[in-house]
Design a protein that fits this description.
The chain is α/β, with parallel strands linked by helices. It has 2 domains: about 160 residues, 2-enoyl-CoA Hydratase, Chain A, domain 1 (Alpha-Beta Complex); about 70 residues, no CATH class. The protein contains 13 helices and 9 strands. The strands form 2 sheets. The protein has a 6-stranded parallel β-sheet, sandwiched between helices. A 3-stranded parallel β-sheet has the order 3-2-5. Helix 3 runs parallel beside helix 4 and helix 3 packs across helix 13. It is extended and about 95 Å long.
Amino acid sequence: MKAFFKFLWGAIKAFHTIAASILLLFIFIILAGVLAEKPGITVPDGAALLFAPKGMLVEKQREPTLEDLMDGAPIADETVLREAVRALEAARDDARIKALVLDPDDLAGGGPAALHALGRAIEDFKASGKPVFAIGDSYSQAQYLLAAHADKLWMNPMGSVSLTGYGVYVPHFASALKKLKAKVHVFRVGTYKSAVEPFIRDDMSPAAKEANRAFLTLLWRHYVDEVTRLRGLEEGAIDRAIAEMVPRLKAAGGDEAKLALAEGWVDELRTRREMAQGVAEIVGADAAHGFRQIAYTDYLKTLKTKNADAPAIAVIPLRGAI
């Protein structure tokens, strides 16, 4: 018995030594990787800043949760508004940056306030006199709001501009709950209390429609007025085009790209190669990317960190229902 415990103790000590050695080796490898000298990012002189946002445009990047880490699924891409604006502000006054190229193909969307704020940053860049190009295969409503700020707005001949307006889509399931014999007890005071309507109605109440229409109309008018100004369109042209979409699309032979060109929503229909060639006329050609460029994410890494000791105003983004 004594020999057995002696053997067991020796095995435990050996395991402890091996585990400690592996842990130290692992730490050493990580430190070596961190401290290894990496080639720095350089900004090509006379290049274009390529702004290709990915995912949702957000105020603050979402931190991965424990569930995300356990699932092992890739975290959805997000574009942080503050970082995008910082890159545009720095590039505006950077003599090495000769133009701005907007490529919003991978932008999933964003709140109207964030999109308009980013649009103002693009306008500030344009004020420097540097050209702004927009290139894309197609444009969603959110993507187009950014692209409309460009001096030259190009789209693929197989693409489309999707302008549908804003809407609220809420499922109502009072009948389903009734069939399931589920009782819902709701206590509410006032007319405009639509949060519980899905549980007690099968459709949107007139009061809810009125409230939703009020704020959606305000958002849409802001969108339309901005695009109308940027694209030099006639007042009311966008609303008329959307209302008459079917006959106008038939007149264009069912070609959404030709319709967008006829409506003045885009300047030219070009393939990706032709778009790159057009930008290259300003900033020069590049064998790998078609035109000389630096991605805005790489450009951010070249900017100096702001003085942490300087006075600052903190902004705390909040998410969720109020």
